[in-house]
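Need residues for this backbone.
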């Protein structure tokens, strides 16, 4: 291989002036590229126009720097090659090209896979690791390292495994899973942007696509690692026994999650009551459902309990919900006037709908006074009812004070029997 021969020639020139000229070309090329990239980044806004890809100035710097370095180093090689051999530059240019390709691949990977702290932290490590392997391959050192790793062997059962097989298995498993996640991410994004499909079906389809992609990645990676996929039949039997004995609850939660997504009885955004929990469905996972209460707390509810218990879905077919507000006035009050005050207080709220119209009913003739109930209708029950009921009662109270309408205190009638006329004893007719 020509690059390997250049590498051997370079080792023989390290102590000569020719090698230092080539090192100067590489350092000077990168210095000029850094100045050009800095000037370009200073002229760019934080993000490009909304219609284009959202590429920040930092991403442009990552790509522009090695590209301009490649141009300047190539020009230096073209000039210096007229006076002396340039084995170092013959190696440096393919390395810079591979570095540009790796940077571009990582940039695309960042936009295809959902962002995570792990991906951000490992991006630089992955880039330099892959570039190091390419550098070893181009210089002809990689075959020697592969032979050394192949000599390190250990026995697992009846199989002899080498370190080279272990590294190859790690590489292919990570590579296939990353590619599968990237493809599933693209398909899932397209599905979520399709408004003609119900949201629950979009979520369900996205989860199915991701699961299928990961399974296919594993099935592709196993033959690449030298593992016969027919052994999965044994694994499948063992998995079935495990599910039957110890994983029935977990399996039930996963199956229940797919059932919920398919029958669309609960959808993200619905206001539901599940046992003693009340809130909005934030997300439906494969194993559990996230329910956000009106006080901001989030509950993780296993899907199996949703299937097996009664669920009150307040927005299943219609998001309009009733808000009832009760008031008690004294028997001396004008009931018609009280009803008009309640209706005015209900109609004066911005959240209350005009259709259906608010209504007032005489609920009960109680011990302490006349009990009336105002019914109003809203279409944003996920915002809670407490603030609306408080605003209505505050307006009612101000109107009661202006109209001198009394809200009665609890009343009790107490009778005191005279001690001079005690009740006759049970034994008063007994003969002495």
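Answer:
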């Amino acid at each position: 291989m020509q690059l390997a021969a250049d590498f051997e020639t370079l080792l023989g020139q390290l102590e000569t002036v020719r090698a230092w000229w080539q090192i100067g070309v590489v350092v000077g090329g990168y210095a000029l590229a850094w100045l050009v990239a800095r000037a370009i980044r200073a002229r760019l806004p934080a993000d490009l126009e909304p219609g284009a890809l959202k590429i920040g100035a930092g991403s442009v710097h990552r790509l522009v720097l090695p590209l301009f370095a490649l141009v300047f180093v190539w020009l230096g090689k073209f000039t210096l090659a007229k006076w002396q051999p340039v084995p170092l530059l013959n190696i440096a240019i393919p390395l810079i090209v591979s570095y540009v390709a790796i940077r571009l691949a990582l940039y695309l990977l960042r936009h295809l896979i959902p962002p995570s702290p792990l991906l951000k932290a490992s991006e630089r490590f992955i880039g330099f690791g892959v570039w190091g392997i390419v550098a070893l391959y181009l210089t002809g050192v990689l075959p020697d390292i592969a032979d050394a790793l192949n000599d390190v062997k250990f026995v697992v059962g009846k199989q002899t495994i080498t370190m080279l097989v272990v590294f190859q298995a790690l590489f292919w498993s990570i590579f296939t899973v990353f590619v599968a996640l990237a493809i599933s991410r693209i398909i899932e994004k397209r599905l979520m942007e399709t408004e003609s499909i119900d949201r629950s079906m979009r979520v369900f389809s996205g989860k199915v696509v991701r699961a299928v992609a990961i399974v296919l990645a594993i099935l592709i990676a196993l033959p690449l690692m030298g593992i016969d996929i027919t052994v999965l039949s044994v694994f499948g039997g063992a998995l079935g026994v495990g599910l039957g004995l110890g994983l029935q609850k977990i399996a039930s939660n996963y199956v229940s999650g797919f059932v919920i997504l398919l029958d669309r009885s609960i959808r993200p955004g619905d206001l539901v009551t599940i046992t003693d929990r009340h809130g909005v469905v934030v997300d439906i996972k494969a194993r559990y459902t996230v329910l956000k209460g009106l006080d901001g707390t989030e509950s993780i509810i296993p899907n199996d309990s949703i299937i097996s218990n009664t669920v009150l879905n307040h927005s299943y077919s219609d998001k309009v919900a009733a808000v009832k507000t009760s008031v008690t006035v004294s028997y001396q009050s004008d009931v018609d006037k009280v009803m008009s005050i309640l209706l005015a207080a209900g109609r004066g709220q911005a959240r209350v709908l005009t259709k259906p119209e608010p209504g007032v009913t005489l609920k009960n003739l109680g011990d302490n006074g006349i009990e009336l109930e105002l019914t109003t209708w809203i279409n944003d029950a996920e915002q809670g009812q407490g603030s609306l009921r408080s605003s209505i009662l505050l307006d009612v109270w101000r109107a009661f004070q202006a109209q001198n309408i009394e809200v009665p205190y609890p009343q009790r009638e107490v009778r005191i029997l005279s001690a001079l006329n005690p009740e006759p004893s049970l034994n008063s007719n007994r003969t002495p």
